[in-house]
Amino acid sequence: MKARRINRLEFVGGAMVLSLVIVAALAPLIAPHDPARAVAATFGDPAGPSLRFPLGTDQLGRDVLSRIIYGARISLIVGVAAMALTMLIGVAIGLVSGFFGGAVDFLLMRFTDVMLSLPFLLLAMALVAVLRPSLLSVLLVIGLVSWTQVARVVRAEALSMTARDFVLVARSLGAPAPRLIIRHVLPNVAPIIVVMAALGTSGTLLLEAALSFLGMGVPPPAPSWGRMVAEGTMYFRTAPWLAISPGVAIFYAVLGFNLLGYGVLGRRRAS
Amino acid sequence: MKPRQLNALMAAAFAIFALGGCRSGSRGLNLPPHAMILRIAEVDDVPTLDPAAGYDTLSWTFEQAIFDTLVRYGEDNVELEPDLAASWESAPDAMTFTFHLRHDARFSNGRIVTSDDVRYGIERVLDPATRSKGMEYYRGIAGADEFAAHHAEHVSGIETPDAWTIRFHLSAPDPIFPHKLAMPFAAAVPREVVARWGDDFSHHVVGSGAFMLREWRGGQRIVIVLNPYYFAKGLPRLDAIVDSLGVDSELQWLRYEAGDLDLVAQIPPAEFPYVMKTPALARLVLRKTTVTTEYLGMNCQMPPFDDVRVRRALSYAIDRHKLVAILNGRGVPAHSPLPPNLPGFDPNLAGYSHDPARARALLEAAHLGAGFSFEIWMRADATVLMLGQSIQQDLAEAGVSAILKPVAWGPFLEAIRQPRTAPAFLYGWEADFPDPENVLGTLLSRTQWGSNNDSFYYNPEFEDLLGRAARETDFTKRYALYDQAQKIAIADAPWVFLYYPVIDVIRQPWVHDYVLNPMRPARFEQVWVSAHGG
Amino acid sequence: MLTWLARRIVFGVAVLAGTTLITFLIAFVIPADPAVAMAGAKADPRTLAIIRHELGLDQPLYVQYARYVYRAAHGDLGRSYVRRENVSTLIASRFPATAILALCAMALSLILGIAMGAVAAAYRGRAADTALLVVSLALVSMPVFWLGTMLLIAGGLYLRTFPLGGFSGPLSLVLPTVTLALGSAGYYSRILHTNLIDAMDQDYIRTARGKGLSGARAMLKHAMANAMLPIVTIAGLDLASMFSGVVLTETVFDWPGIGRLAYEAVFNLDIPLIMGIVLFAALLIVAANIAVDLLYAWLDPRIRLEAAR
After folding, report:
1. Which of B389, B405, B407 sits opposite A221 (nearest CB)?
2. Which of residues 39-98 of C touch A (CB under 8 A)?
3. Average pLDDT in the B384-408 region?
4. Number of H helices and number of E strands within chain B?
């Protein structure tokens, strides 16, 4: 019974993520209007949902629904790419640290400590200020800031793997370290990496939305969901849907990845 | 966590809470029960109250109330009138100015204001240790540079022959020098108070103005009360002004509706259409076109903007009325570099209309019919970004692809001052004193390359006119020269003139005599509040 | 025990030193000329040069770093470029607002999270368990700034019960606390749930159940204490990081705390303030780490023994 429940989570999460990917990929076909052009003369006075514009138009006359659809692209690209970077750095550091132990481990972990003690969001904001906002800089910054958790978990797994007899024997026999890491440690660490990738993407998505909300994300007119919430907040008395709909989109995307991650985690634990 | 520990934690939290205190409104002020209080609010915290340091609307609002300068502007205009100085003379060569102080001005600590206090205030601004943004304006005084370099104890060009006279000698003629003395930088400052508080002077300011500082809780509220020693009898009419800080625009609006706030500056965009459509509210709105010009600057040294046809094309491509609509009508479309309330403004200058066809034709003529792409640098401000996107849309219609580049204020300024970094930028310039020199000279003169002429514009004829006008003491001839210069600037189009911002304030029906000034924050001394239920 | 503590403190100081170095490097890569930030747009190059000299910016980088560290060690974190106030005073004045919010939010999130996690574990495998799992995940998936904005609209605009932002009394504390607490609650409930399930599967618990204790009581009496331990660690570190400012919540609610200050500092590229806040945050985390380790050691006798060796 437990297995079925967990599979359900994975299934729902996976479906949500898949739907997101499809929307992002087919955006030009699905979106009714150009997200960057004014299609209604509602300047300074956003209009509510109507037949022509199901989610209304914003203060620059743009169709909100189209912007949300295209926004999926930004969220996915930044979220997934940043997660990939996070994984890359985190796994590399975790593996090296866990496998070699000793001084290497000590130094790397102290470095991780330093990174952990720096306030996340503040660091991200400052880095974006340094690098000047663009899709690439936001991606890089999120990736650079989020790897510590991954490194710690991978290190723990790597440590336990490295202590196993067969690895110790292989090492004493002079097998080269990289080969050992890749052939024996990595495959066993892989499942946890998959889980962290899913959960990590939900984290990077949230971080991207937060940065955009604070005005430090991908620059306009890119329809980043986070910034749409911020822009919509100005009109929340007369046009609350401007702030609500992009938030729902973020929630949907993050929940999808979380469900997927937990689903895979649950399945692994059950086994 | 065990329940008992939880209880302890909650108790501790509330203890800190109760002790920390967090008063709002007029509580805890010890004002007499029928005191006439004006309640206002700000979105941000006041940066500083130190007249040498402040250079923004909010700081100046309070500095004006707390300090006096030799001269100041009229209530709703930019004519100079006496403040600390009862009278003054300008020498015909515009290099010497003498001011005669009134004898009855006192600081709020009771001490009489003398010429030494005025000199001290200005020397403080010139002292590099103060890091004043106003240093610029007084470097024209003879001996200022020596003083700044610590080679002299006083500025030789400021003479105080007696306690009631102060004379300024300039290194070069400057007919508008008295206007620089109307800026809060030149306020009379009591040196003993600065000596006592040092760098914390800002939180313990003492001035000779109509009000004095009662309380300033960072991020929460600032309270000023009437200065019993103020020289103008019967003023101020108010007993106190309570300004709540860090209050969101929307919240200010709600408090206004509930009668808890007496004034709201900058009605939130979402409410604005509704307010203007409701006669009962619309009549309570005051509006003023500020002496600010918002423009899209183009770097005349960077291709393709080195071709005047391209610059003119952009001027025709951009729809100014759409921008004003996005701002809910809080702007006036701009057709010239000078804003309407500035002396020297010429309402007959037509500028450029919104004509996309003509824009495309000009681009064709410049061999750019296929379009081109460039970056527009701007501050990372929500309104600026909205306008940038509108401009982006307009340019796209003409086949030009504009990439928006929002950056923080510091990097923005640095970038636009480099000769080859920013091809275009969105900027606004607020005039500091009522003379065209402050706009045309400061922003478009060859001498300001790398400083404020971020368009790197140069036209020898224009330059010559500027030079002649700056020295001209006959104001009719002066403005005529500047007008000729303006026409050249419009034809050369180093900027796309966008709009002049309009500020608006809504008052409660019981607030009287609150008047907007085009160049300075509104003054409080003549404001009064009638009885009301709020 | 004492040597263990001393070692941890030394590590802590080393981490702080590393933090100052990284912060300093970032600060000096940030393309903001402080002279321009202070003197404003209308200053000419000579004025800027004068100001740069006064700030000591024409000194080599390592000299500036050394001066900074020396002053920081004495509590002087410099002056904000934009606000002209002492950074230390600024941070100290904003700290109470953040602290109150953090404490209340932590309390609420722990209550909610522990309740959810415990109930889910007690009804393990049943509908309530799944339902609570989904609820927890939903809470964790909500963007804080969006949740805050929605609560603000609902509570402040439509219901008109709560003030629209700002720190003005107990009522104004409610919405920001709930916003912060909900996300954390989801997070803690998951952790507790996982740990409880692990603990319940341990042998000694099975033995206790075999002796006749009902499932729920067995869990509460034996598993809870062990399962709570990691929560204490995480909550402690979480609290420390909340103390250094919750930027998103404070921005949405106009809360006059350190988070808001930090946002303004980055927005204005006010370097001394940014560095001051980062250092402050790092100090809190390092201190919290040591405190939590101590607490852990005290609570778990096995670790205490280990440290004493």
Report:
1. B389
2. none
3. 89
4. 18, 20
